[in-house]
């Protein structure tokens, strides 16, 4: 192990407090070992970093102008790989955000954050552009990476009418 300064919060798994019960002692040792392992990883490997010029982020909500969406649509039209994830409201657990990350052949990639609780009116140009974005993403020729079953992830977004099932 290196001679670099150790964090004050780093615990020694071999020296748990004496006052702990057997179960608490076991948990304390396990957690201390995890902390030590993570500390060693931090010393051994640099933090993962992606330079800003490798991606662009677009937030989509009712105040988004249509010209940035034109840029996004042009990019997505020529892309064939994407990753999709959703986030839920921490209080209601209702779907609140859809994140679509393009994985292009040439950088920059684009990350689109669609704020479902702040969508534009259904008859607006921006809403049509959002639908078109999903049409591009869900073309059958595309590869989509996702966490968990995609249908389950996106099913709760159906009432927003931004895409239709079946996908692709």
TrEMBL record:
This is Uncharacterized protein. It comes from Rotaria socialis. The lineage of its organism: Eukaryota, Metazoa, Spiralia, Gnathifera, Rotifera. It comes from the Eukaryota.
